[in-house]
Fold each of these.
Amino acid sequence: MRKLLIVAVALLVVHAALLFAGGRGVTESARPGATDVGIVLDVGGRGDKSFNDGAYAGADSATRILGPNIRFIEPGEGSDREAGLRLLAAEEMDLVIGVGFIFSDDITNLAKEYPAISFACVDYALSVDDKGNVIPPPPNVAALKFREEEGSFLVGALAALVGKSKKVGFVGGMDIPLIHKFEAGYRAGVKHVCPDCTVVAQYAGVTPEAFKNPGKGKELALSQYQSGVNVIFHASGSTGQGVFEAARATRKLAIGVDADQADEAPGFVLTSMVKGVDAAVFDAIQRVQNKTFAGGIYSFGLKEGGVGYIYDEKNKHLIPDDVHARVEQLEQEIIAGRIKVPSTR
Amino acid sequence: MNPFDFLTQTLRIAIPYLFAASGGVIAERAGIISLSLEGYMLTGAFSATLGTFYSGSPWIGLLCGILGGLVFGLIHALATIRYRADQVVVGIAINLLAIGVTRFFLQLAFESSSNSPRIEGFGASAAARGFDNPLLWMGLLSAPVLAFFLYKTRYGLRVRAVGEHPDAAASVGISVARIRYLSVALSGMLAALGGVFLALDQHQFTDQMTAGRGFIAVAAVIFGRWDPVRAALACLLFAAAETLQIQLQGTEVIASQFVSMIPYVLTIIALAGVVGRAVPPAALGKTGE
C-alpha cells in the first residue's frame, strides 16, 4: 500500500510539474507600478496558429506599446482552467483575461469573489435565466464577443461562388451555440448568392475534445469531398488540421478560421474567416491601463473590423475578380445593415 | 454513399483501435489491467512525429513511435509488477503523464503547445483510400498475428497461464514477472503503433490528438471478451458505427448522436452479461498480493 502511494504521488507530482512547465519564462521582467495582466489560454494554447495565438499577439503588442506586466498560463486538463484564473486573481492582477467561451462560468463566479479586479473573457457566453432573459455579466467583467456570423456569411458566399458544385461543406468542432453561429452565417451567405445550393454541416463531437481531433476532422472532410463538395469551411480548432489534410489529399479547397491559415495547406486554402482577438485583447488591456475599463458586452463585427476574410497575394489566384467584387459589395451591405445575418440555426 | 467508400472509411477509422485493442488484449491476458492504452498511443504519435521530423523518414518515425510506447510500457510494468501498485491508478497516471510529457516536449522542440510542423508521412493520395499506407496493413494483420501467438505458440500459452493462474505457472518454473514485463512492453509497442498511424496519416502531431481512442479500444477488449479476433471485430463494429455517424450527420434520417452512442451502449450490454458472459482473465489486476 505504501509503495502504491509513493508511485501514485510521484507520478502526480511529475504530471503537475509538467503541466505548469508550460508557463516558464513568461513573466516578462516585472516592472513595478505597471499594470499587471494575467491571461489564461484555452485548449490548444500558444502555437495553435489561431485563437490563442491571436490573444498572444494582442498581449504582445500591448506589452511593446503600453508596457504592462503580462503573465500567461496554459492550462492542461479542464479543471486546471479555474485554478489558473484563481491563481491570477489571488495575485491581485489588475486584469485577468480568459481566452475562450469555456471560461465564461468560472469568470462570472470569480468576478463576484474579486470585485476589485477587472476580468475580460473572449467569446463570453451569456447565460440565460429560467424565463429566457439574458443575464448580464457582472459589472467588472468585459464580455468580448464577436459577430462571427458576419464573417462566416462572406466566406459562405465565397465558397458557393468559387465551389461551383451546388454543394458546400462545413465542419464544426464541438456542437455548441458558439459554433452554430459560424454555421448559421455561412449557410445564410451560401443561400444568399446561390438559393438552390445545399450546405452539408457536420460536427466532430459533443465534448471539448472535438476541437482537437484532427483524425476525425480528416474523415469528416473526406466524406464531404467524396460526396461532391468542393469547398469546406471549418470552425473546429485543431480538428481543422485534418480538414486541411483532406483538402491536400483530394486537391480541393478549405477555408480557415480565426487566423489566416493559408500556410497550413498552401494552395488549398481559399481564404480564412479571421477574428480580431488580438485587437480585442489589446483594447481591454488599454482600457485598464487608462482606467477607463467598464464591464459589459463588447461586440466586434465587420463594422468594427472585428471579423473579416483574407484576400491577399497568397489566395488572389483562387478568387476571380468578379467574385471578389461581389463579396466586397455584400460586406458593405452588411455594414450598412441592409443584410441581416442570422446568428442561430 | 457507396458501400466501397463506407468500407474504406471504416477500415481507416478502425486502424488505431485495432492496434490499441491488440495491445490491450496481450497485457490483460497476462493479468495486467490496460487502462493506459490512450497514453501509449499519444506517446507513440508524438515519438513518431519527432523521429520523422528529425530524420525525414516516416520509417524511422515508426521505429521511434514503437520505442516511445516501449518506454511507457516499461514504466507501467515497473510500477505494477515490481512495485505492485494498483493497476487502475497506474493506468490513469500513465495517461496523464503522457499528456504532460508530450506537451512539454512539443513546446521544447517546436515552441507550440498545440501542433508540430508538418512532417513526412504515409498515404498521400486520396485515390488510394489509405491503402497505400503500410500501417493500415499492419493494423489489419495485428489481430490474426496476435491470435496465432497467443493460441499456437509456447510463449502464448505462458502468457495465458500467467493471466489465469500465476501460482500454477510459477510452480512449473515459469517466471511470472518476466512474462508480464514482456507482455506489457509488447502492449505498449502495439498500442503506440495506433498513435503512429494517426500522426503519420495526419502528417502532424496535435496535442492530445488521440482524443479518447485508447478508451474505445479498452471497451473493444472487454466487448471482445479478451480474445484478439473478437476484440478486432469489436473495433471494426465501433468504427462502422463512427462511419455511420459521419455519414448520417446532416441528414435527417436518424439523430447522429444516437448512432455515436452505439459503441458505449454495446459495451455496457456486454459487461452486464447480456451477450454471452464477459469473463476476464482470472488473475487480472491481482498483482497486489
Amino acid sequence: MSVITLTINGQEVSALSGATLLEACRQNGVDLPTLCHLDGLTPIGACRLCLVQVEGARRLMPACTTEAQDGMVVQTHTESLKEYRKMILEMLLSERNHICSVCVANGSCELRARCAELGVDHTRFEYRCPDMPAIDLTHERNGLDHNRCISCTRCIRACDQIEGAHTLDMQGRGVDSRIIIDMHQKWGGSTTCTKCGKCVNVCPTGTLFWKGSTVAEMEKDVGFVRWIKEGREKKQWSL
Amino acid sequence: MATKVRLATVWLGGCSGCHMSLLDIDEKLIDLAEHIELVYGPLVDAKEYPHDVDVVLVEGALCNTENLELLLQIRERTKIVISFGDCAVTGNTPQLRNKLDIDDVLTKVYQAGPGSIPKGPESVDILPVLLPKVHPLHALVPIDVYLPGCPPDPDRIYKVVAALLAGEKPQLPAESITFG
C-alpha cells in the first residue's frame, strides 16, 4: 500500500493512500468532532461536524467522506470552522425536543458531550418544539423516541451493514426525516428485526433505548462495530 | 472594608431546584456571605426588584407575563445577568407545552389529564397570563453568563459566582457545561 503526504494545519503528515481525511487527521493526532461517524460503518457525511477547509476547494469538505490526496493542504480548526461546528450543534438542539433533564441517555449522549467539548452552553436559534410521532414501545426490548433523533443514520447502517437485516430506514427529507421500521410499521410487528440491539448501542442520543431504562440510565457500547468489521476483513470467521 | 457585591436571585418558571442547588454549596455560603449582600430573591423579603444590582442568578424559563415584565426590569437594573439552570438556558421541561395550542394548555393538562382534581375555567383572572410559548431567557434579553444543568451542581455554581466576585469572566471547563 502506498503512502501519500499532505499538510494538515501547517504540518506535513503522511497517510495511507485511500485513507479519508478524517482517518489521516486522527492518525496524526488531530482530533475532529463527529456524530454520524462510527468506526466500522460506511461514512456518509450527514452531521457536518467534521467539515474542513481544503485549499483550492470552493466549499468546505466533510473529512469523513473525503479521500486524502497527495499534496492536499487542509485546515481543521480555523475560527470560522469552530464557529460553524457550534452552529451545527445549536441547530441540532433546536430542531427536535432534546430535553436532557428527562432523557434516558443523559450521561451517555454524544450530542450532549460534543456540545460540552465545543463550548455550546446555549442555542441562539429558536426552538422548533415540533410535535413528533408517538414513542414506539411495541418492540419486546427496544424503544424509539423521535424527539431525540439527529438523523445520523448510525442505527440504519448498523442494521444493514453489520446485522444484515435492514429493518430500519429513513422516511422524508430535511426536518421531516424520520426513522421507520420496515415499511413504516410498528416495531413490535416487524418480521425482519432480529432483536440484536445493535441499533440501540450505536445510537448517539436517547432516540433508541432499552425498554425499562429511565432518566440517565442508558449505557451504550459501540466498540463491537469495529471488532466485527475488522474480523470480517481478516476473514476471521471463514470456514 | 470593601463594598459588598449586590447579589440577587430570581425564580421564574422553574421548580426551585436551582435554588436548592445554590443552598447545597453548604459551608461555602459562609465565605460568600462575607463578600455579598443578598438584595432580592425567594430567600429575601424584598417586594420589588432593586436598582444597581451587580449580579443576578435567574432560575426558570419565561412562561407568563409576570416573568416577562420582571426579566425586563432585571436586565435594566443589573450589571451581570446569569441564565441559571436548564429552564433559563433552554426552556427545559416547561417548554414541553409549546406544542400545545395556548388556548388548550390548561384544559389539556388539568381537565383532560388523569386524576380527579377540581375543574376550573381555562383562564383565571388573578393569575398572570401565560405566554403563547415558553422561551429561554436569552430570547428576550442579552445574557452575560450561561450556567446550564438541571440543576447545575453546587460546585459549578460556586465556580461561577466566585469568579465573578474575583472580577473575572467565568470560564467553566467542558465537563461543567453539560445540560440536564
Amino acid sequence: MTATTPDRGLPAHLVDFVQALRRHQVDVGPGETVDAAAVMAEIDLLRREQLREGLAAALLRRSGQRQTFDALFELWWPLGQGAALGEVALPYSEDGSVDIDALRDLLAELLVDGDTAALSELARAVVDGLGTLGAGRGPGSGGSGGQGRDGAQGPPSGFSSYQALNSVKPETLLARVLAELRGRRQADAADSPFAEEVARRETRARIAEFRRMVQGETTRRGSEIRGREAAARTGVRRQAEQTDFLSAGADTLADLRRRVAPLGRHLATRLAARRRRAHRGPIDMRRTLRRSMSTGGVPVNLVHRRPRPGRPELVLLCDVSGSVAGFSHFTMMLVQALREQFSRIRIFCFVDGCVEVTDLFTPGADLANILTEVHSRRGLVAWSGHSDYGRAFERFADRWPDAVTDRSALLVLGDARTNHQDPALGVLRAVVARARHAHWLNPEPQRQWGTGDSAAIEYGRVMPMHECRTAAQLAGVVGGLLPV
Amino acid sequence: MGSDATGRTTLFDSVDDVVTRLGDVGYLASNAVATTVFLADRLGKPLLVEGPAGVGKTELARAVAEATDAGLVRLQCYEGIDEARALYEWNHAKQLLRIQASQGQDWDATRDDVFSEEFLLTRPLLTAIRRDEPTVLLVDETDKADVEVEGLLLEVLGDFQVTVPELGTITATQKPFTLLTSNATRELSEALKRRCLFLHLDFPDAELERRIVASRVPQLGEALAEELVRIIGVLRGLELRKAPSVSETIDWARTLVALGLDTLDDEAVRQSLGVVLKHRADLVKASSELRLN
C-alpha cells in the first residue's frame, strides 16, 4: 500500500480522494472540497459511517454518483487493514483446511435469518480463508485455523472473489434456504405460491448481496497489495449513465434501466417547457399594423401569429439485431416515455426485413414483453438474420411510402454495420428528402465509424449522424433533436 | 441547543443528538439523514434533499422544526411561481386606498408612508429571513419552479439577505435551517446545488422501515409488520413504474389494521395490494410475477 497518508496529513488525503472521484467522472469543485474539509472538522472521525455520509453530502451532487463514491470511499477510507476478522469465523476441519460443508451450513443459516451484519463478517472471513491467491493458503492447501493466520508461507499475492465464491457456491443454497423458510412458516400459509415466490426473491437478493460483499472485500484486500490507485482503476465501476451501451454487463444494464425511466421524464418536462416558450409564432404584420392605428401608426404592441396547431410526428427506425441489442432497448424505453409528448409516433424495427411495431407501445406495457414480441413479428427477419440496412430501407420505403411526410421527424437508430451489403443510399436519400428533420443515432464510438463493414460515413453524408454511446449522451442528443 | 465557535446558535449537539430528538417527535432518522441534518446545522448551509416521492422529505423538515421548537415556514414551489409569490409584494390595493385617503398631503410624505412595513406583504422567503425566533425554512418541490426562481433562491440562500429597494437591505438575524426538496423531475442548476449539502433520501433498509411501521401503526403486530416490510422489499425489486414508498408501506399497514386482518395470506394481499401499487400495469405485473393469481 502506498502509505503516503501520515506524511502529508488528512487534508492531502482528502484531496487525493477528491482527485480519484474526478478521475471517475464525478465532478467535484474546489468549493466542495473545502466543504468536505469543514465536514471532517465537525464530525467524529472515528465514526466511519458518519464520515461517509458527511463526505457524500458535501461532495456529491447527483444520486447516480453514489455508487462510484461508495466504491472509492472503501478504498481511500478502508475499514481497516489486513484480515479484520470479527466474530464470525470460518469452520475448519481436522486437517486444517476450511470445512466447506460446515461453511455452507453456516451461510445457509445466516441467509435464512437475513442477518446482514453477520453475513458481511462471514464474507470477510471467506475472502481471507478461501480467496487468497499465490503464496498464501489456497482452498486446497489450507491454513491452520486460528493460529498462523497471516501466513508463515509469506504474504498472499492477491485475492480472488471468483475463487472464494466458486468454492462456497452460494447460489446452490437457494433451494435449501427456501425449504428452511417454508418450514418456519405457519402451517396454513405453507403451500401458498405467493409466500414461496416472495421468499425466493428475497433469498435471491440476499445471496446477491453476499456476493457483492465478497467482491467488495476482495477489492479492499487487493488494494492493500496492489495499491489503491490500481484497485480504483479496475475495481470501481463507471456510473451507469457513462457506461457504453454496447459493452455494459448484466447488472449495469439493470442499473441503467432504472435510470432511463426518470431520464424520459426529464426529457418530457424539458420538451414541455420548450414548447411553452415557443408558443408564440412569428410576428403577424397585418394585425400589428391594424393595432398600431390606436397609437398613431407606431407599432408599439407587436402581435404574434398563433402557434401552429397539431403536434409534430416522429418516425423511428430501429435496428434490433443482436449487435446493438442493448442500445435499441434503451432508445425504446426513452421513446416509450416520450410517447405521450407526440400525438403521432410510428415505430419501425428492422434486421434485414422491416416491421411496424407502433401498436406494441401502449402506455404501461412492459418493455421486456415488447421486445420479445418485436422479435417474434413476421417480416423482421427476411433473409439471414444479420442486419442488412439497404434491404431494410428498401422494404420500409416500399411498404410504408406514406410514413414519412413533410411534417415528420425521422430518427434512425443503429450502428450502420451493413455486413458488406448494398447500403441503398439512394432509397434513404429519397426518404430523408421527404422528412422535415432526419437524424441518425449511432451507439458506436465515432472513431470506429467507417471501419470494417460500417457504412456510417456514407450514411452520415445522407443525414446527420450522432454518436450516442451512453445514457447521458443519448438523453442529450435526443433532448436536443426532438422537434418542438 | 449550543453554539459554535462564531457564537451562532446551533440546533444539535451531535449526530446522536439528532437521532434522539428526531426520534422523540416520531421521525426515525437513518444514519445518512442524521449526519447531513447535523452538518447542515453546523455548517449553516441549506440541505438539498432529493429522492422518490413518499420517502419523507417534507416530513423531515417538519420533524426538525418540531424537534427544535422552531417555526416552520414553507414555500411550495410550482410552475410559474415568481418573486411576488416567493419573496415579497407590495399591497397595491391598500396603497391606493391610502393615497386616496390622504388627499392634500404632499407627495413625499405619502410616498414614505405607502412604502412602509404596513403595506408590505411578506412571502415565505422574506418571512423566514425576518423572523427572530428559530426557523426552519422548507422550499418544497424546488424542481417544479422555473429556472429564474433558482436565481432568486441562490441570492437569498447565499447570504440570507434580501434587498427591498424602498426599505433597504434586510439581513437575517438568525440564519434559518433551510431544507430544499426535489423529486428530480429536472436537474437543478449546478450553482444552486453547489450552495447546498446534498442528501439522496432513498427507501430505508428493512430494519429501519420495520421500526417506522411499528412507530406509525403500533396496532399492527410485530410479526405482521415484518412480513409486510419483506413483501414491500420484494416489490421494490420488481421493475415497476412506481416502486412503493414508505408512505405506501404505512398506508398498507393502516389498511390491514382497518380490515382487521392479522395474517398476510394470499387473499389479504390480493385484496389490499391496490393500496401499495397505484398503476394498473404494476398491479398486473406484480400479481403475475409473484404468482398471486
